[in-house]
Design goal:
284 residues; alpha+beta; 35% strand; globular
């Protein structure tokens, strides 16, 4: 429920303060999406790191949505005459853990808007910051998301070529399907049409198919570390370099597991790097 302040976006600033509860039902639904037994979780358990995305859902009114349907995560996003939106980067720090059934304060704010002009025309870089904390505690999670707003593409982008990755490491292949995209978007109340409206994604934005949510791709990578390798993340920095598409194999490659920072690469079906992640680990 909203109990703080809401200011209309003026090109520079928008701030929202809410109090919510991370319910057992929310956690169990994330588990179902990931193919995990929902009965593993109970009220009072710690929320797995990375599952906080379900608390970042916006409350943007329908008439304030962007033309692409994106509501903003936590705060409404500007239009600025730029109809295409992409997630460029995400930086997250886990200071402590949220608790299932516990009250959570969320502060979300648009902290900067930089309008620029490049070789493909005007674009803008918008940064959004989130702070999640128990009502009477210090922040458990802080996150900064960087979005790129742009004009529709005038021609098909040249296909990137696969890059050489470090030898060794471990990997896993997953294939996000339509159902997973729907569930992830529903859990985060993300109505960005490139994730569920195939006609819009292909005809308006020029994609070959539905686009896998950048947050979902990151979550699959951190779940690989948590569930498959038994590691707990402390911080992550993700750069999204190219779109990933539904029903196509996504390969998660992890390197330097013994180093202070683990490096992950997310590869599309052609071996092109779609995202790079730097992750520091916490002691279990």
């Amino acid at each position: 429920s909203l109990f703080g302040c809401r200011r209309p976006f003026d090109g520079r600033f928008f701030f929202m303060l809410t109090v919510d509860i991370f319910t057992l039902a929310q956690v169990q639904r994330v588990a179902v999406m990931l193919g995990i037994d929902p009965q593993e979780f109970s009220v009072g358990d710690l929320v797995p790191r990375g599952w906080h995305f379900a608390l970042l859902a916006g409350e943007t009114a329908r008439d304030a949505l962007r033309s692409d349907g994106f509501p903003g995560l936590g705060v409404p996003m500007p239009q600025l005459g730029l109809p295409r939106l992409l997630l460029g980067q995400r930086n997250t720090n886990f200071h402590t853990d949220l608790q299932i059934g516990g009250s959570v304060t969320r502060q979300s704010a648009v902290t900067s808007v930089a309008e620029k002009t490049g070789r493909n025309g005007p674009f803008a870089i918008v940064k959004v910051e989130h702070i999640l904390a128990s009502v009477a505690a210090h922040p458990e999670i802080t996150e900064t998301q960087t979005y790129v707003l742009a004009c529709p593409p005038t021609a098909a982008s040249p296909k990137s070529v696969p890059m050489a990755l470090p030898a060794g490491g471990v990997s896993k292949v997953v294939t996000p399907d339509d159902l997973m995209l729907f569930q992830y978007s529903a859990l985060g109340f993300n109505t960005h049409r490139i994730h569920f409206d195939r006609d819009y994604a292909t005809r308006v934005e020029g994609h070959p198919d539905l686009v896998v949510n950048g947050g979902l791709a990151t979550l699959l990578a951190t779940e690989f570390l948590r569930k498959d390798l038994g590691l707990r993340i402390k911080s992550l920095s993700a750069r999204h370099l190219a779109p990933l598409y539904v029903n196509r194999p996504l390969t998660i490659c992890a390197h330097d597991l013994g180093a202070p920072e683990v490096r992950l690469h997310l590869l599309d079906e052609d071996g092109v790097v779609a995202a790079e992640l730097g992750i520091t680990l916490d002691e279990l």
